[in-house]
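call fold(seq) -> tokens
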Amino acid sequence: MHDKGIVIETDVPARLDRLAWSRFHTLIVIALGITWVLDGLEVTIAGAISGALQQSPVLHFTAAEVGAGASAYLAGAVIGALLFGYLTDRFGRKRLFMITLGLYLAATAASALSWDFWSYALFRALTGAGIGGEYAAINSAIQELIPARFRGRTDLAINGSFWVGAALGAVGTVVLLEPGRLPPDWGWRAAFGIGAALGLFILVLRRWVPESPRWLMLHARLDECESVIAEVERRAASRYARLPDGSGRIRLVAHARTPALRLLGAILRDYRRRAVLGLTLMTAQAFFYNAIFFSYALVLTRFYAVPASAVGWYMLPFALGNFLGPLLLGPLFDTIGRKPMITTTYAISGVLLAIVGWLFAENVVGAAGLTACWSGIFFFASAAASAAYLTVSESFPLEARALAIALFYAIGTALGGVAAPWLFGVLVGSGERRAVLLGYLLGAVLMLVAAAVELAIGVKAERRPLESVARPLSAVD
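ret:
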């Protein structure tokens, strides 16, 4: 015994990292990574139905209220991330990612029943809380179950699946908002049913996902830990041979729980440089994404007279560029490395945003041309944003991983994301292209600052075990 814990020596992390890719890992990616599909679906639906919300015979939203509704979703995500992030470290990855999915299901279904702005904002906030909690629980589980040499590309590909959901939302809203297909005020309500139906399917898949062996090990649940990892090895070895062991055993003090203040101290005091890095990356990408994506439908309808029912078609190429970026660039984060790739993708995104913002302000590009420009920009920006989550989720100790993800997601989204949809709603509502350009330039500057910070203090975590990137708080010599 040691400090009210049990001193153990284990090779659990090494056993997980030396496994070859298997169908088990594919199941993990599908069952857990589909969270990003849900988020993409929700964000796209909220953006694509903005015109319908304004034209609704019941709601009659203004452009500012549409933006405020998006901000409510993000504010809920901030609160949900903080609350469920702590609980994920306390009670386990699996328990929490089932609870947060349940909250999401109930809240997105309730969104379809909204009768005024305040009811809509409340239900969107609760939906966001479920998704925010999902980010903390899911990112933790994925990091702790995927072998080190695949961690970067897997994390980026999963985060990129956000845009599969965006495409589903775009197609769904095009169909449901087509004039004459459904009675007035029914189309946008039916759109929220897409997420609820998909969520029910995910609930079934997640029954087969085990608790993180690393979390079980840390909480002295050694029998369960051995049972889970033995099953993982059996399933991975059924058709795939294990690769040579590249790491050794570690000794640590297994506790039932670690005090919350100790966790916060580890994140904000012990790893201050990484805290600055994570906050900068998350804030920049949150503003960049939420400002542009949530306001895109408003820009199309206000400045290009695109019918609200056709907005979804413009989302499809936009989503394609965002999905292909992390998928194609992801392997480079494991080979070339985190620092050069994160710096490059953030810098390219910032420069291109400033250029396209100027083209928009000068009315040089039409709706189709602007969509093509966004698709090119977000090929790089999507990889950059995904890398922000990768950086935060692998740069802090095992005991505080979910809390760290939640903390930086929450702070970054609060600083860079919550106000962005409202701000751009106001800028677009002004009808002045140069006013919108100022918002684009602010996003560009934030991305360039983030690139400089990554270049200065980025973490070289590629192909390294998590315990090597950040030593567990409970580790002993």
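Residues 219 and 438 are 50 Å apart (CA to CA).
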